[in-house]
Amino acid sequence: MESNDDLKREMARFEAARVTAPIDLQPAELRVLLAVFDGTDQDATVAALARAISARTGATVREHHATGAEPLMGILAAAEGADLVIAPSPFGRDYLTEGHESLSTTIDLLLTRCEAPVCLARAPVDDAERCVSHPLVALQVDRHRKVDATAVGLALARGGGGLALLSVVDPSERTKREELIGRYIDPRDLSPEVLATLASARAAALTAALQRHAREWNVDARVKFGLGEVVERTLDVAARRRGLIVAGRDRDATSEGAQRARRLVLASALPVLLV
After folding, report:
1. In this structure, what DSSP letter does residue 59 have?
2. Residue 180 — pLDDT band, cuts 50, 70, 90?
3. What is the pLDDT, as a whole number, of residue 1?
């Protein structure tokens, strides 16, 4: 009779095969950027990122100066037709000095309501061009948006940049029902080797698509794997890479993916682009 360990190993292998289905990956189209300014010292970073993204993609930059009692409505109106919004965060205040555990209300709501991807900047960027052209795509921040996040990262890296995909398995979390053939399994019961296989499988289809077109898109494509808490591992890798962090976001602010995205922005000195 097959042992419990053997069964779990086979389930992980089955998952590895299931998640490697081919993916049709193309660079996202970024034609119009909206740069949001709020009159704080983060405006310079927003401007630098907007210039760098425009230079890489050829997108037109529109500016919006958020003033008045309801800045959110003004930003949402200005974002109509934009393919990417670049904004300072937290909006007009620093959560570290004030002790806030979340983003400002304006940015929290913007992430929920804005249709376009939102790039949030908290700190100055030494080299905006290098940062933008070497994005790190964190696949498990919101795994349901990982293809869209990769497409946006690819749009920024295409034409001589570098794109890294990061796939992380957290051994402390039970793998969710939709992730493993309809059953729950605790990754703590699996060996590091099996967990690494699971992490690499999650990125395999995207990696294969990148490799097929890497020369055509002139992009240096890499894939990285990690074990640990997703946000923590993402920040560790990003700190060494010094590139823009790209991740998916769930519009439901209470979801696990949305909470991970929020924690990522709050803890990162590097810009975070949420798709």
Report:
1. P
2. very low
3. 43
Region of residue 99 (left: phi > 0; alpha: psi -120 to 50; beta: else): left
Residue that is written with structure tokens 């497409």 in the block: 151
Q: Is the pLDDT of residue 209 over 60?
A: yes
DSSP 8-state secondary structure symbol assigned to residue 145: G
CA-nearest of 267, 238, 257 to 164 is 238
**Residue 133, CB-side half-sphere exposure with 13 Å CA sphere:** 18
Contact 262, 102 (CB under 8 A): yes
Q: How far is Cα of residue 188 from the mean position of the Cα atoms in its chain? A: 26
Query: Which tokens belong to 39?
Result: 């009159």
Strands 118-121 and 272-274 turn out to be: antiparallel
- pLDDT above 70 coverage of the chain, percent: 76
Kindly report which listed range (108-117, 137-146, 188-197) carries the lowest average pLDDT score.
188-197
DSSP string for residues in 153-216: HHHHHTTT-EEEEEEEE-TTSPBPGGGTTT--B-GGGS-HHHHHHHHHHHHHHHHHHHHHHHHH
More confident residue, 242 or 172: 242
Neighbouring C-alpha atoms within 13 Å toward the C-beta of 124: 3
